[in-house]
């Protein structure tokens, strides 16, 4: 795929490595290399690119500050040595988040994700089974069927063959798999980890790859981060 990109990074060695990886593994056009955010702003006024490789820790303006100045539809691949900015990065049109030092294997995986983001197929017209638009469910707890209002559920947590359902005032153990529950839940419930489904309406904040909901800190795993942040981006002003 013939995509146009630029590299924005104040470390020459990091820029050189990305240039080599791009040349070895893709057919992309590297239109420019900028060593600070101000230089990048001037470059982008004169050139159109499909996406940018963007470092975070840079002088004058950080990568996050620059991302906030760019048009909202600018697609970004963040490149950084610091994992703690990952959740924050998905407030933008982030395709991927590459941790330095970037290996060939990780870069190849990123190229597949980047090209897939420009090659999305139109939605299927086939009829699909929709999740129920329910505001409550009955859950079996022991010999009792308990009615639970979904708006009151903070999160579901997998515990081996059980699932722990947590509200603001109680916890229930349900003899079900988390995957089975996930298939029946409507939005705003979203899977963020192999062990957790959260109610995005009730979360307090997102910071450093973690969700804070009620008194619980819940990790967001790489596997589910993109889908979760896609939902969150729709609510960012």
What does this structure look like?
The protein is elongated. By secondary structure, the chain is α/β, with parallel strands linked by helices. Helices cover 29% and strands 34% of the residues. It starts with a strand and ends with a helix. It has helices at residues 12-25, 37-46, 63-69, 86-89, 104-117, 178-184, 222-233, and strands spanning 4-8, 29-34, 51-55, 75-80, 93-99, 136-141, 144-149, 153-159, 162-167, 171-174, 189-193, 196-199, 203-207, 210-213, 216-219. Strands 2-1-3-4-5 form a five-stranded parallel sheet. A five-stranded antiparallel sheet has the order 10-9-8-12-11. A hairpin with a 3-residue loop joins strand 9 (162-167) and strand 10 (171-174). The chain has seven helices and 15 strands.
Key traits:
5-stranded parallel β-sheet, alpha/beta, 15 strands, 5-stranded antiparallel β-sheet
Short account of what is shown:
The chain is an alpha/beta fold and 237 residues long.
Radius of gyration: 21 Å
Mean pLDDT: 86
Strand order of the largest sheet: 2-1-3-4-5
Strand content: 25-35%
Helical percentage? 25-40%
- Total DSSP E strands: 15
Annotate the secondary structure layout.
Blueprint: E1 4-8, H1 12-25, E2 29-34, H2 37-46, E3 51-55, H3 63-69, E4 75-80, H4 86-89, E5 93-99, H5 104-117, E6 136-141, E7 144-149, E8 153-159, E9 162-167, E10 171-174, H6 178-184, E11 189-193, E12 196-199, E13 203-207, E14 210-213, E15 216-219, H7 222-233
Parallel strand pairs: 1-2, 1-3, 3-4, 4-5
Antiparallel strand pairs: 6-7, 8-9, 8-12, 9-10, 11-12, 13-14, 14-15
